[in-house]
Predict the 3D structure of the following.
Amino acid sequence: MAVSIKEGSLEKPTRHPLDWKSQAFYDESSLNQELERVFDICHTCRRCVSLCTSFPTLFDLIDESATMEVDGVAKADFGKVVDQCYLCDMCYMTKCPYVPPHEWNVDFPHLMLRAKAVKFRKGEVGFRDKLLSSTDAMGKLASIPVVAQVVNAVNRNNAARGLMDNMLGIHKDRVLPEYDSAKFRSTAHADASFAVRDGAQTPGKVAIYSTCYINYNEPGIGHDLLKILAHNHIPAKLVDKESCCGMPKLELGDLEAVARNKDINIPVLAKLAREGYAILAAVPSCALMFKQELPLMFPDDADVKAVAEAMYDPFEYFVLRRKDGLLKTDFKKPLGKVSYHIPCHLRVQNMGQKTREMLEKIPGTQVTTVERCAGHDGTWGVKREYFDNSMKIGRPVFRLMSEAQPDYISSDCAIAGRHIQQGMNENKDESRSNSEVEKQHPVTLLRIAYGL
């Protein structure tokens, strides 16, 4: 390894496009060489040890090896590190001093992604993981009226959950989101009748990319978003046709599936972008997929770039809209104390704490912000072998969210919100029952504050 003349780069981090279509990307010998190079850098630094379980796993392997260096770790054990990574991106964005343009060129998450892609191509991914990552297909089936009732009942039944644990490896203690037969896209009534008022920083009309989760699991978040837009006289419509954003398949390493979903979504979204719509996605992982991951997978695709530039997190849009003088502040109801968790996939969008900024504008509202990974990820924390680690990672978040004695707990990631609520309920303080605390998505909190 070349000796660096500087400990870390002070330049703005950048990312290289993913060369995922080349055969070299999937060459296992080349991959292992790169894993060894990067693991050696991580070993000499160890700054990321507190972020997740990937780094403690790596450092334990090194410390227990014969040489106590990376060369003493069996190549077959590299996969143990990869399996603990759920691509939160926090090491790249907040800790690592050696990310590009630093000469050592460390992008730990995308190296883990490459390793996952190699594993997937080798056929080493099982049925459960493929099933859990097929969020759109599962949602379409599970949200059929009678089926939804059965699925929700099974998910609450201890005996059935024991079978799911034994047969599928879905942890019996993980609280799973319910499915709603009244799907968002089927029941939404978007109002496009208002005049378009473009601001200096915001388009004056909005298209809603509903996401799998809001469409099938919590449609109320989408309905609340439409109410807020209508209250502010912002014309809105639903995206004409949509598929899963591809993030679950990306995390699995199934890059071909990501490309197939991209081919469904991007033509529709690019048309809206070029027609001057702001595209809003209320799930941070979905917004990040369009803003960052697809542009890195398809760097020369003009449509992908157009969608990335038009994609907004709802609160990113609302704060900019307020700065344009085009967002109402006629709040009717204080929210009291809100413990607010910033999801990793929102933090890495590099737009600041827009949700907190918006909620703090509501009179009679005190926001306690927890800026730390909750440890669930999309499907990682559901799996039997990772459940305990997901709860361990989340424990500091559960404690910090509870200490504020909040009236509401909230996270832009609805799955993280459920995970946090479960963790708080399992670690109740006798002086105050956490069951009294109401969990609401920030979009719903804003709708409540407006009195809608």
